[in-house]
UniProtKB/TrEMBL annotation:
Keywords: Oxidoreductase
Residue ranges of every copy of the Pyrroline-5-carboxylate reductase catalytic N-terminal domain listed in the record: 45-134
Regions that span the bilayer: none
Superkingdom per UniProt: Bacteria
Protein name: NAD(P)-binding domain-containing protein
Organism for this UniProt entry: Nocardioides mangrovi
Length: 267
């Protein structure tokens, strides 16, 4: 992706400066425990498009929570043998299209520059968790992100117009997906921010996130996802201390960091 060309499916919106207001308990529908339990029971298979550090960490937690996982990457299922062997009988490797079709919920965890290759048809109607971050040195310059008229997850949503994208897992270092996971009710259980435009999809994502060891913290629509993107206070450094050790994050700390977010042009 050379230069600063717009992606053909990228949405545009005007820039509106708004102060972060944490959603109320009523607005955070994902906090309804009974609903989450019902949603969780309806999901048995997680498809993963991408099996790098984040994808592998999510897969490990999913298998530990009792899910089947179908893994894929850009190099072909034959390259995933070691990971499948590590994960055991509840894991299998497939193409991206096959993983998308198999998953009750699908995680897209590939470089942002590659989202145009995400299969559209098998994801129609499904909840899709997006872990993407924008790194221009890797992804090339993307005009809509450089001028901040869109966000990474809104780009994926535009590519998947009949899917329901939820932004999650993008702001935590992959190692801490394992080391910070805790059972429900544990006083050191951490929260993970989620953003999305569909309440049912956010409930599905929250149920899965809950099963793998975290509480989902709904911050609002996809457009608010910029608040925990690269280099901002609610990004990866939030989950470790000055010595590099894992640090639990509660809702109050996350909300404080989200409120400190500034647009890149203002930094």
């Amino acid at each position: 992706m050379g230069g600063s060309a717009a992606l053909p499916f990228a949405p545009k919106r005007s820039l509106v400066r708004t102060q972060y207001r944490p959603p109320s308990a009523r607005e955070r529908t994902v906090r309804n425990a009974a609903r989450l339990r019902a949603v969780s029971r309806s999901m048995t298979t997680i498809g993963l498009i991408g099996a790098g550090n984040i994808g592998s960490a999510i897969a490990r937690r999913a298998v530990a929570a009792g899910y089947d996982v179908v893994l894929s990457n850009s190099r072909g299922p034959e390259t995933l043998g070691d990971l499948v062997s590590e994960l055991g009988p509840h894991a299998s490797a497939a193409t991206a299209a096959e993983a998308a079709a198999a998953g009750d919920l699908v995680v897209v965890t590939i470089p942002l520059k590659s989202i145009g290759a995400v299969p559209v048809e098998p994801l129609r109607g499904k909840t899709v968790i997006d872990t993407n971050n924008y790194y221009p040195q890797r992804d090339g310059q993307i005009a809509e992100l450089d001028d901040e008229t869109s966000t990474t997850s809104e780009l994926l949503q535009a590519h998947l117009p009949e899917s329901h994208v939820v932004k999650a897992f993008n702001n935590i270092f992959h190692v801490f997906i394992g080391t910070l996971a805790r059972p429900a009710g544990d006083p050191e259980r951490s929260v993970l921010a989620i953003a999305g435009d569909d309440a049912d999809a956010k409930a599905e994502a929250a149920a899965f996130i809950g099963d793998v060891g975290f509480d989902a913290h709904d911050i609002g629509p996809l457009a608010e996802g910029w608040r925990y993107q690269r280099d901002l206070p609610a990004y990866a450094g939030l989950y470790f201390d000055d010595d590099g050790n894992a640090r639990p994050v509660d809702a109050a700390l996350l909300d404080d960091k989200l409120a400190q977010a500034q647009r890149y042009r203002d930094m």
